[in-house]
Prior knowledge:
The chain is built from 9 helices and 5 strands, in the order ααααβββαββαααα. The chain has helices at residues 3-8, 23-28, 41-55, 63-80, 136-148, 177-197, 207-211, 220-233, 250-283, and strands at residues 85-94, 99-111, 114-122, 154-161, 166-173. The model is unreliable at 1-14 (pLDDT under 50).
Amino acid sequence: xxxxxxxxxxxxxxxxxxxxxxxxxxxxxxxxxxxxxxxxxxxxxxxxxxxxxxxxxxxxxxxxxxxxxxxxxxxxxxxxxxxxxxxxxxxxxxxxxxxxxxxxxxxxxxxxxxxxxxxxxxxxxxxxxxxxxxxxxxxxxxxxxxxxxxxxxxxxxxxxxxxxxxxxxxxxxxxxxxxxxxxxxxxxxxxxxxxxxxxxxxxxxxxxxxxxxxxxxxxxxxxxxxxxxxxxxxxxxxxxxxxxxxxxxxxxxxxxxxxxxxxxxxxxxxxxxxxxxxxxxxxx
Length: 284
């Protein structure tokens, strides 16, 4: 384990739940959290395909899924040809245990007599990801790999997106370590500070981030926006508790249901006018 990690950041158990895959969301808004009620189909498929890339067993996959896994294995196969070590599904301790993440591959090679690491992450979704040079999840994995191999002089992070037929890479040097570490530490500490204080002034609602956040129903800033919209569409009573699972009073649930119907109408109206605007531009 790198002595840099030990001296920069003392070990603490408080931050260990802030995993690398959430860092982009938490950098935008420290109050962001995983949505436990979201559709798990994509996550379940991702787990299935990652397992297939680890074992090489394609049984039970459809043709598209097999193509995805085969593309990933073909890519890492080239990296592994001259490898000194190859590790699959590596659980990385990052910054002395500040957080943890799992890299699909850590491949150790020698280049010009120096130790080089290839840190690979497979992305089986259909959406793009941030470029490897600025991707916070990738930064976490590079830090963890450098910690695991203190003698390594460089590390290349590889994002492989088979459904988009894209591969993005960036090489970091050991000298980049303090810069990456500071950015990761700040994301985690801001999220931990919000968790400890509940300071709502730290919240930063944005459309894409809120869409996948498990806190959006109880978020004060989202609630303020939603209720202001609802009041313009229809006179509604303010409901103190907006998290439906916490409402036990039937009368309060009725008020909340009325607000939800108004918000549905608002959303439908926005979609309708957005499509109409897009159609007019396409005609012009």
